Amino acid sequence: MQLAIDTSTDIASLALVKDDQLIAELTWRCGQNHTIQLLPNLEYLLRQAKLDLRSVNGIIVARGPGSFNGLRVGLSTAKGLAFSLGIPVVAVNTLEAEAYQHAETGLPICPIFNAGRGEIATAVYQARAGGWQQLVPEHITTLEVLCSQITSTTVFCGEFSMSLAPQLTQRLGQQAIVSPPATQLRRAGFLAELGLKRFKAGDYDEATNLQPRYLRGPAITRPKATLK
Question: What would the CATH number be for the domain defined by 2-93+186-209?
Answer without folding.
Answer: 3.30.420.40
